[in-house]
Amino acid sequence: MENTAVSTEPVVLYEDEDVLVINKPYGWLVHEDGHNEAPTVVEWFCGRVPLARGVGEPGLSSKGEALERSGVVHRLDRETSGVLILAKNQSAYTYLKQQFKDRLAYKEYRAFVYGRINDRWGTINRPIGRSSKDHRRRSAERGAKGVLREAITEFERIGMGEYEEESFSYVKLMPKTGRTHQLRAHLRAIDRPIIKDELYAENKIPKSNNLGLNRLALHAHILELALPNGSTERFIAPVPLDFEAAAERIAE
Fold first, then answer.
1. Spelled out in words, what is the top-level CATH class assigned to the domain 7-102?
2. How confident is the model at residue 140 (pLDDT cuts 50, 70, 90)?
3. Where in the chain is the domain with CATH 3.30.2350.10?
4. Is 30 in contact with 71 (CB distance < 8 Å)?
5. What is the DSSP letter of 91?
6. Which of 7, 150, 244, 247 has CA 20 to 30 A from 162's CA?
7. Distance, CA of 100 to CA of 225 (rounded, Å)
8. What architecture (CATH level 2) is domain 103-252?
9. Cα angle vertex 52, ends 71, 18, to 5°?
10. Which sequence positions are flagged as catalytic?
11. Would you place residue 4 in the very low, low, confident or very high pLDDT band (cuts 50, 70, 90)?
């Protein structure tokens, strides 16, 4: 993947004795993956909350090496920015993990895609497997291999228009399941891949003006869930300035 400029460190949105909620910058890995040298949220988190080191479940790289994943309850892809919650202790981790497993956490993303999405609202209900063409990708299209897992994404079109004689849409995405690369694979499957997605829009990027964006146009905007302290909270990572500028470009 092309190494775009990495933005500044995470911004804290909320903190209590059990959890830390941040706005993750694009370009940051949530945890090490055994391949990239990009900064990781986990190392930043453990530097801020040393007692959280070891919380959660260890992971393994594709080479079988142990990965540092302290505090990680859910993930965002490296080039996706936005709201992310981390657990400071094991009981908080277990509580939050169950929220995601039971699909009780509400997640809302913002994205720009190539082309026009004519439906104002809709649901993409396509199971996801592995791509037969690229081991890094998931697929919600015919020919996907391996175990096909249920994947459901609801969407709402926010805007649609032209920029330099090319069509784009601005959408709100609400994943109801939590599959790897779900939003990216689903939008590719309906031929509306996310702008600057080097993995799923590789054929469109070189031919497009890309709406003037120089990063993957996917941002985790809202996360709402119950916390270990018993309260239900709604966390919002503000829409990035480059997204606001892009929305203006296609405003009708």
1. alpha beta
2. confident
3. 7-102, 103-252
4. no
5. H
6. 7
7. 9
8. 2-Layer Sandwich (3.30)
9. 75
10. 77
11. very low
Tokens of 181: 């690369």
DSSP E strand stretches across 16-144: 19-24, 59-60, 66-67, 81-87, 106-114, 121-125, 128-130, 138-139
DSSP classification of residue 77: -
Phi, psi of 188 (to 5 degrees): -65, -40
Contact predicate 185/149, CB 8 Å: no
> In this model, does residue 97 exceed pLDDT 70?
yes
Reported as a single tens digit per residue, the pLDDT across 181-199 is: 999 999 999 999 999 999 9
DSSP E strands: which ranges in the chain? Answer: 11-15, 19-24, 59-60, 66-67, 81-87, 106-114, 121-125, 128-130, 138-139, 145-149, 152-163, 166-175, 218-226, 232-236
Q: Is the pTM of this model over 0.70?
A: yes
CA-based nearest residue to 38, from 3, 76, 14: 3
C-beta separation of 32 from 42 below 8 A: yes
